[in-house]
Amino acid sequence: xxxxxxxxxxxxxxxxxxxxxxxxxxxxxxxxxxxxxxxxxxxxxxxxxxxxxxxxxxxxxxxxxxxxxxxxxxxxxxxxxxxxxxxxxxxxxxxxxxxxxxxxxxxxxxxxxxxxxxxxxxxxxxxxxxxxxxxxxxxxxxxxxxxxxxxxxxxxxxxxxxxxxxxxxxxxxxxxxxxxxxxxxxxxxxxxxxxxxxxxxxxxxxxxxxxxxxxxxxxxxxxxxxxxxxxxxxxxxxxxxxxxxxxxxxxxxxxxxxxxxxxxxxxxxxxxxxxxxxxxxxxxxxxxxxxxxxxxxxxxxxxxxxxxxxxxxxxxxxxxxxxxxxxxxxxxxxxxxxxxxxxxxxxxxxxxxxxxxxxxxxxxxxxxxxxxxxxxxxxxxxxxxxxxxxxxxxxxxxxxxxxxxxxxxxxxxxxxxxxxxxxxxxxxxxxxxxxxxxxxxxxxxxxxxxxxxxxxxxxxxxxxxxxxxxxxxxxxxxxxxxxxxxxxxxxxxxxxxxxxxxxxxxxxxxxxxxxxxxxxxxxxxxxxxxxxxxxxxxxxxxxxxxxxxxxxxxxxxxxxxxxxxxxxxxxxxxxxxxxxxxxxxxxxx
Length: 589
Hints:
Elements: E1 3-9, H1 17-25, E2 34-40, E3 43-49, E4 63-65, E5 70-78, H2 81-90, H3 100-111, E6 121-129, E7 135-139, E8 148-151, E9 155-159, H4 162-168, H5 177-185, E10 201-202, E11 207-211, E12 217-221, H6 238-252, E13 260-263, H7 268-279, E14 286-292, H8 303-313, E15 316-322, H9 324-337, H10 346-357, E16 363-365, H11 370-374, H12 391-399, H13 404-407, H14 420-429, H15 437-449, H16 454-463, E17 468-470, H17 476-483, H18 487-490, H19 497-503, H20 509-512, H21 522-525, H22 529-540, H23 542-547, H24 552-560, H25 573-586
Parallel strand pairs: 13-14, 13-16, 14-15, 16-17
Antiparallel strand pairs: 1-3, 1-9, 2-3, 4-5, 5-6, 6-7, 7-11, 8-9, 8-10, 11-12
Helix pairs in contact: 1-4, 2-3, 6-17, 6-19, 7-8, 9-10, 10-16, 12-14, 22-25
Enzyme class: ligase
EC number: 6.3.5.4
Protein name: asparagine synthase (glutamine-hydrolyzing)
């Protein structure tokens, strides 16, 4: 895990080490166990370390290998690093540490940019070649680890978080009109490379960017699942195949030199992870769940099911209940931890959960990604059997927060542009492969929505407390397998049918057959009292008025009826507006 940053100059000037040090300071929560800044001519690296593998100083970063002429910084974990290390040693490489960072250095030297195809893990990295002056940036297949970039004519800066780039200075903080449209329409998902700010972009997932000393660069996309059925199976074989792949993914994510726990929501996904670990003989497994007070007639916890699973598998279970006295202050902390505005109310749940979990363990496994990969969401069944040519429109009707015509009544004219979200979805659905409408929707959600909503949420909130979250449902081998599974098997039984069949006999039936749940934070879904006051203050602050994002009559209407205005999927329209302003104000934009 960890966080890193850097600057690469193209104008012959030395890198601004002071700016890199400022950027690095903002990453402390991602790496509380150590820090380092390294510079050589046009390049400077900063790194904050979370010790998970090779706890000695030999694993510290930035990591230089003078013999190979390479220096690297890295965030994440290469789960198969031991196997790759053995292979590289057989090829004649000598290692000075037992870290996965050094495997990236040697692997890059041996295989070049294609090294990423051999990595099974979550990662973002930067490697600098001393002799050529080339800088190489890479990101894992599913974008589990973030990498933000700010470019100019004279330099390139990069960091694990967007606020780190802001701390470096010199960033164009005007709003990106396309990203704003996505935020308001595409369920707050802003696909890479855009962010809400014009001056900051994201390296897309599954991408290696090679930057030459003069600033020219080339992007290489090394993974793109097809969502087609190349090797048809008997339908009865799919649950076993999925289970075998998930079992391997859970097992490999136990690699660490520190204990590994599990975030246990009480849903099928996290419960099955616990079950597979118990099946494998894990002793003393620590599990964690969170709950809040009820509001608006909605329960604030799922303890019934998490308690059931913890008792069934004999885990050391931590039940964390959050009172209102902690929730309101935590909202500010969660917004501050967001690299981009993230409207999902469970951000604050993950934030508070991570705060408590980090007191017990440094690494957890989590069930994120199962719904996108294995068809668990409510908007998938309406796409079944839809003609391929109409798929984009049906998807948008199910998933978009509002149609473009409504946005014209909500955004101020200065911020209103074309229907960018519909254009993006149509373009994505038109790509080759994914012959069925449902396959195309699952492909979009797995490669885009998942990356810039649930995955980003988990990374930002856990790393706010130096907690590493590992997501076995996003093992690329499992994702590839699931992509080739017939979609009707995924949406069966109310969603994730193939996973439910796989879980029978491992997880209690009461968990498998329960109604789908989520991380409930009722007071955000039903704004009132001090939470409504917070929202009103954000939307009427001088900064908000000066910005003028929303039509005043629309804002007034939402404030007059806080719970009465919902997006297509039932989220609070008022919270969506307020969260954007809260984020912009929190980060001084």
